From TrEMBL:
Protein name: Putative aliphatic sulfonates-binding protein
Signal peptide: 1-19
Composition-biased stretches (Polar residues): 25-35
Every Solute-binding protein family 3/N-terminal domain range: 42-256
Transmembrane stretches, start-end: none
Region (Disordered): 25-46
Organism name: Streptomyces antioxidans
Reported function: Part of a binding-protein-dependent transport system for aliphatic sulfonates. Putative binding protein.
Matching SUPFAM superfamilies: Periplasmic binding protein-like II (SSF53850)
A Gene Ontology molecular function term of the record: ATPase-coupled transmembrane transporter activity
Similarity remark: Belongs to the bacterial solute-binding protein SsuA/TauA family.
Length: 347
């Protein structure tokens, strides 16, 4: 699995280097030191700073757990999936792109749950004074992007929509911290990125949005589990309960954007206003949806795109890496995200 791949939501710029837990391994993982609940079944959960553990705790969903949750903190999606595949954790949350790379590498994973949010946070940004006005104007220009990230796919898809290919631009593969520096110094004309970096660039780096992922990316995030955990009846029972708590926590986020922004900012080092912008633009808009045929088809498109670009080693059916037993009565994956109304996002 490529270490360069970054999930749809990762650490904020301020903590990109410093927020890794002190006991991290070469895979970018470590224990958060937190165990919640009680009982004879333990669910090992892979998480990122400020993600599932933080939101469940803030929403009160870790109270009265009839089983234990042992948290392990990772720096990004790929090492979470490595841990899932290696049975080091039972389940973990990631963005829409890491599962594609993990599946291409024949990892032992199964996508078991999904969230659908707006794609407004998936953006290509330019400086406010830039002469670039539309996607087609990127022809011949330099664009920074994290290789294999959700933003990389969004860049490819946005260019295609504008009648261009990735070969029509000068791609500079940079992780967010380096990309921010290059963008701020004018070393690149544009930056393809995701929230909360999008919100941070708009607030703090004199940026404006050239185009967003609306209509070109699927806006999905996933919970991914190990197949052996899914073969354990006791684990399946607690996974079902865990996913239900995540759904309730997401409802809480939507209903309490300011409160969550304060918690999220404290957890990650994001300035409050940047966190709130990201909540209202992306984070709080997500709704839990079924992992259905439409979701699989959209992930298949991502997988085929990266295979064509030779960034993954093979073509494969993404459906082979999906377990639909937890769909229940969840709405379709194409269900519209929530919204906070016009004018609610930062500029």
């Amino acid at each position: 699995m490529r270490r360069r791949i970054v999930p749809a939501l990762s650490l904020p710029l301020a903590l990109l280097l410093s927020a890794c837990v002190s006991s991290h391994t070469q895979n970018g993982s470590g224990s958060s030191g937190n165990t919640d609940g009680k009982g004879d079944v333990t669910l090992d959960v892979g998480d990122q700073k400020g993600n599932d553990e933080a939101v469940l705790r803030a929403a009160g969903q870790l109270k009265n757990l009839p089983y234990k949750i042992k948290w392990s903190t990772f720096t990004s999606g790929p090492p979470i999936l490595e841990a899932v595949s290696a049975k080091a954790v039972d389940i973990g949350g990631v963005g829409n792109t890491p599962p594609v790379f993990a599946a291409a590498a024949k990892s032992h994973i199964k996508v078991v749950a999904a969230k659908h949010g707006t794609a407004d946070g998936e953006a290509i940004v330019v400086k406010k004074g830039s002469p670039l006005k539309k996607t087609a104007d990127l022809k011949g220009e330099s664009v920074a992007v994290a290789q294999g990230s959700s933003a990389h796919y969004q860049l490819v898809a946005s260019l295609a929509k504008a009648g261009l290919s990735i070969k029509d631009v000068k791609v500079t593969f940079l992780q967010p911290a380096d990309a921010l520096a290059a963008f701020s110094r004018g070393k690149v004309a544009a930056w393809a990125v995701w929230d909360p970096y999008t919100s941070q660039a708009l607030r703090q780096s004199d940026a404006r949005v050239l185009t967003t992922g609306q209509g070109v990316v699927n806006g999905l995030n996933f919970q991914v589990a190990n197949p052996s955990s899914l073969g354990d009846k006791k684990k399946v029972k607690v996974i079902k309960d865990y996913l239900g708590r995540l759904r309730k926590a997401q409802d809480w986020v939507y209903e309490h954007p300011e409160e969550w922004a304060k918690v999220w900012g404290k957890e990650t080092g994001l300035p409050y206003q940047v966190a709130l912008d990201s909540v209202k633009r992306t984070n709080g808009t997500r709704v839990h949806v079924a992992v259905d045929k439409a979701a699989v088809a959209s992930e298949q498109e991502i997988a085929d795109t990266f295979a064509k670009l030779k960034l993954t080693p093979r073509r494969f059916p993404f459906a082979d890496y999906v377990d639909t037993r937890f769909n229940g009565d969840l709405p379709p994956s194409t269900t519209a995200p929530r919204t906070y109304g016009k004018g609610s996002q930062g500029s």
